[in-house]
Design brief:
four-stranded parallel β-sheet, EC 4.2.1.20, Tryptophan synthase beta chain, about 15% strand, Rossmann fold, seven-stranded mixed β-sheet, Trp_synth_b_CS
C-alpha cells in the first residue's frame, strides 16, 4: 500500500488542459462596463501580454507549456499524490483518502504554477515590472518568486488585515525582492478614496485588485498579474489535475469525490478541470465539491450576474456568482478565500450543477486542520483546511454507509506562516463570523446597472 505516488520529471505535463472547448455552452464574454458589449481584446493590451489575452478565450483543447516554464516547474513538479492512511485510520473509515500536495513548491502553495507562466510571458514582451494583489500572501509570494527568476520587479498590494496577520508572508515576498504595501494604501487614487470613506477598513481582495490594476494602467513599463479568477490563470493550474489523473491511474484508482477550496477558483479549477472534462464526456462519474468560507459565501449565497472583478470598478464585468463588488468580508484567517466573486468558469459549472458548493465556518475548518496535522504531520494553510473539512465529512459519511469511496482533494498550501491563527484556535480565541447578510444586501444593491437591452 503506497503512501505517496510519485511521477518522474519526464512525466511533467507538456501542455495545459483547456476546458473551454469542452463545455456544452461557451463561456459568457467579459463586458465593457461603458457599453455593456463584449470587451475588445485590444483594450486588455494595456495591462496584459498578448499571449495571455489569447489564452483567455482560446478554442484550442491544449495549450503547449513553453520549455522555459517547464524548466522552472521542474524545481518542484511533479508534486506528490499522498494517501492519507493515518487520517483514514483515525476516522475509522472505509474510504480511501488521497491528497495532491502542492505545498512542496518554493512559496509553499499551488500559486507558482501560473505565476511562473505569467512572469515568463511578460518578460518575453519586454515588461519591466508586474503589479498584483494578494490576500493571505500566497499569490504575492509566488509572483515575487517568479519575478525574481525572470528578472522582473514586483509590487504587491496586500489586503490590510492579512498584512497585519501574516508578517512572515511579507518577509517571504521581501526575500524575493518585491515591494509590499498594505491595501488600501495611499499610493493609488482608488486606495486614497476608500481610506477617506473608511480609514479603519480591513481591506479586501477587490480593493487590492483595484490598486494593482490602477498601478499597471498608469505606468508604461508595468503590467498587471492576477492570481485567480481569469481563464488563463485556471488554465495554467491544470498541471495539478493532469498529474493527479496519471498518479491515480498508477494505483488503479478513480475518484468518487473531488474536493478543493474556492476563493477565486484557481486551485479548484486547476485540480478539477481535467476530471470535469472526463465527466462531461461521460467517462467519469464523480461528485465535485467546491468549499468556501461561510463568512464569504459567494457560491452558496451570491447572485449569478455580471459584476466588476474589483471594488473601484476598473475591471471588465464578469458573469459570476457575486456578493457585490463593494462587499468587504470579515477578517477570517483564510485570506485567500475572502473574495466577493469567483472564476466565471467555476460559476458556470456550479450553475450547470456539475459542481456542488459547500460553505463552512472557520472554527470547523481549523478543527479539521488540527486533526490532519496530528495524523498526517503537515500543517495546512487556513484556505486548505476548508477542503480537508469536506474530505473528513465525506469520509465520515462513508463510515456510516460502509462505502469504500475514493476521496481526492487538493492540498493547496502549507500553513507554516499561519501559526498565529493556530495559536488563536488552540487557545479558544478564534471566532466564527456570522453571515453578514445586511452587508451583502447593501453590496448587491450597488451592482452595476447595464445599458438598455443588456
Amino acid at each position: 500500500m503506497e503512501r505517496k505516488i510519485l511521477l518522474p520529471e519526464e512525466e511533467l505535463p507538456e501542455a495545459w488542459f483547456n476546458l473551454i472547448p469542452r463545455l456544452p455552452e461557451p463561456p459568457a464574454p467579459p463586458l465593457d462596463p461603458r457599453t455593456g458589449k463584449p470587451i475588445n481584446p485590444e483594450d486588455l493590451r494595456r495591462i496584459f501580454p498578448q499571449a495571455l489575452i489569447e489564452q483567455e478565450m482560446s478554442p484550442k483543447p491544449w495549450i503547449e507549456i513553453p520549455e522555459e516554464v517547464r524548466k522552472v516547474y521542474r524545481l518542484w513538479r511533479p508534486t506528490p499524490l499522498r494517501r492519507a492512511l493515518a487520517l483514514e485510520e483515525e476516522l475509522k473509515t472505509p474510504a480511501r483518502i488521497y491528497y495532491k500536495d502542492e505545498s512542496v513548491s518554493p512559496p509553499g502553495s499551488h500559486k507558482p504554477n501560473t505565476a511562473v507562466a505569467q512572469a515568463y510571458y511578460n518578460k518575453v514582451e519586454g515588461i519591466r515590472r508586474l503589479a498584483t494583489e494578494t490576500g493571505a500572501g500566497q499569490w504575492g509570494s509566488a509572483l515575487s518568486f517568479a519575478c525574481r527568476l525572470f528578472g522582473l520587479e514586483c509590487t504587491v498590494y496586500m489586503v490590510r488585515v492579512s498584512y497585519q496577520q501574516k508578517p512572515y508572508r511579507r518577509t517571504l515576498m521581501h526575500l524575493w525582492g518585491a515591494e509590499v504595501y498594505p491595501s488600501p494604501s495611499e499610493r493609488t487614487e482608488a486606495g486614497r478614496r476608500i481610506l477617506s470613506q473608511n480609514p479603519e477598513t480591513p481591506g479586501s481582495l477587490g480593493i487590492a485588485i483595484s490598486e494593482a490594476v490602477e498601478d499597471a494602467a498608469t505606468h508604461e513599463d508595468t503590467n498587471y498579474a492576477l492570481g485567480s479568477v481569469l481563464n488563463h490563470v485556471l488554465l495554467h493550474q491544470t498541471v495539478i489535475g493532469l498529474e493527479t489523473q496519471r498518479q491515480l491511474s498508477l494505483v488503479g484508482e478513480k475518484p468518487d469525490v473531488l474536493i478543493a477550496c474556492v476563493g477565486g477558483g484557481s486551485n479548484f479549477g486547476g485540480f478539477t478541470f481535467p476530471f470535469i472534462g472526463e465527466i462531461l464526456e461521460g467517462r467519469l462519474s464523480a461528485e465535485v465539491l467546491a468549499v468556501e468560507p461561510a463568512s464569504c459565501p459567494t457560491l452558496t449565497k451570491g447572485v449569478y450576474t455580471y459584476d466588476y472583478g474589483d471594488t473601484a470598478g476598473l475591471t471588465p464585468l464578469l458573469l459570476m456568482h457575486t456578493l457585490g463588488h463593494t462587499f468587504e468580508p470579515p477578517g477570517i484567517h483564510a485570506g485567500g478565500l475572502r473574495y466577493h466573486g469567483d472564476a466565471p468558469l467555476v460559476c458556470q459549472l456550479v450553475k450547470a450543477g456539475v459542481v456542488k458548493p459547500r460553505a463552512y465556518p472557520q472554527t470547523a475548518c481549523f478543527e479539521a486542520a488540527v486533526l490532519f496535522a496530528r495524523t498526517e504531520g503537515i500543517v495546512p494553510a487556513p484556505e486548505t483546511s476548508h477542503a480537508i473539512r469536506a474530505a473528513i465529512d465525506e469520509a465520515l459519511k462513508a463510515r456510516e454507509t460502509g462505502e469504500e469511496k475514493v476521496i481526492v482533494f487538493n492540498f493547496s498550501g502549507h500553513g507554516h506562516f499561519d501559526l498565529s491563527a493556530y495559536d488563536a484556535y488552540l487557545e479558544g480565541q478564534l471566532e466564527d463570523y456570522e453571515y453578514p447578510e445586511e452587508k451583502i444586501r447593501e453590496a448587491l444593491e450597488r451592482l452595476p446597472k447595464f445599458p438598455t437591452g443588456i
